Amino acid sequence: MKPGALGSPGVALLSRGPLARGCELCFPGLKAVVFVTGLCDDGCYYCPVNRERLGRDVLYVNEERVSSVEELLVEVYRQGAMGASITGGDPLIRFDLTLRVIRALKDNFSESFHIHLYTSGRYATRQALIALDRAGLDEIRFHPTRPGFEERIADAVKYTSMSVGLEIPIAPGLEKWAVRLIEYSDRVGADFVNLNEMEFVEPNAEALLLRGYTEDPRRPHTVKGSLEAALRVLEWAGRNASIPVHFCPAAYKDSIQTINRLRRTARLDRAWFEEAKGPLLVWGEIRLGEERVLAPPRPGLIAALAEEVRGEAYILEGYPTRNRRPVTLVERVYPPGGGGSTL
After folding, report:
1. pTM of the entire structure?
2. Which of 93, 99, 85, 102 is nearest to 39 (CA)?
3. Is the omega angle on the peptide bond into residue 335 within 30 degrees of 0, that is, cis?
4. Up-side HSE of residue 35: CA atoms within 13 Å toward CB?
5. Is 291 found in the same domain as 225?
6. Residue at which a domain ends, from 215, 241, 265
7. Can you tell me the distance from the alpha carbon of 339 to that of 66, in angstroms, rounded to the nearest whole number?
8. Other C-beta atoms lying within 10 Å of the C-beta of residue 83
9. Is residue 7 very low, low, confident or very high in pLDDT (cuts 50, 70, 90)?
10. What is the rounded CA–CA span in Å between residue 26 and residue 272?
């Protein structure tokens, strides 16, 4: 660290330099999140991946579990995605599958479909990096979990045409580690650095508490002091580094990125009887015993139909998932009464 390094966060900005292309596409919800596998050999104490995925060899696209590359492509299409982020676990543990996914996305959605990938670098040999580049990977992001793994950043810069970045979590006590890795990334010619606010969620809460971290009461689901730590590093980077450095708040993922992705999916994947309402879909449903008839959410129309067949009529809403499971009863329109309860 250079003299006079980490000072007050007061004048720091959230970004020093341009965003990586993968980040530009995430903001408007144009990136599909492809979870290739939950297998990982790094065991990071702060890992926020839930127990349904971590340590399990499962494949997801956004919130949907899929069983094949073909199903994966369908989910990407439903979203209308213009790119994908490949994550895990460590996708390089399932290297052959990762290459198949990259090639399939490029073949089915065009060469301009932007793909970035996250890895610790443990399995990012020179041969693996060259193979990823040849398959069409546009951007690779390293999270060096062990000393020496950062050398994979230099290898990727030297031996591939991919955009190469460093992406690490930030919390109090990790500032010097972040500065060291930023200095290295800058020196070897990497393209960008992302600092992710450390999350405080159920899968990692116990491990974080044991290390003295607590949840920020002002910023739910984040480690207290992470924002301030990030701002200190950003201020240092503004004075000492030439590489672009960006801070991504934890709330961004749920309040902006995920909502924008759901809005886009709802708008593009809605059925003839559904209406998009932000990240949700709204539809009418007429029930007669076990039978259900779906219809546009027009109270007068579905009430008249329900009255004629002596059934019940509801207006429901849910997220644009494949199964369209309703999450909220908006209104019971026939017989009158009720509404607003969670199903």
Report:
1. 0.91
2. 93
3. yes
4. 23
5. no
6. 265
7. 34
8. 22
9. very low
10. 28
**Per-residue pLDDT tens over the stretch 18-60:** 999 999 999 889 999 999 999 999 999 999 999 999 999 999 9
Cα 99 from chain centroid? 20
pLDDT single digits (tens) 292-329: 999 999 999 999 999 999 999 999 999 999 999 999 99
Q: Is residue 5 part of a domain?
A: no
Residue whose token pair is 């349904």: 52
* DSSP one-letter code for 139: E
Q: Residue 107 corresponds to which tokens in the numbers above? A: 């073949």
184 in the same domain as 306: no
Q: Specify the DSSP class assigned to residue 125.
A: -
Return the closest-CA partner of residue 136 out of 167, 168, 169, 99: 99
Per the structure, the count of domains in the chain is 2
Q: Angle at Cα 13 formed by Cα 85 and Cα 238, nearest 5°?
A: 95
What residues make up the domain containing 160? Answer: 15-265
The tokens for 9 are: 């966060």
**Tokens in use for 300?**
């007068």
Residue with tokens 């644009």: 320
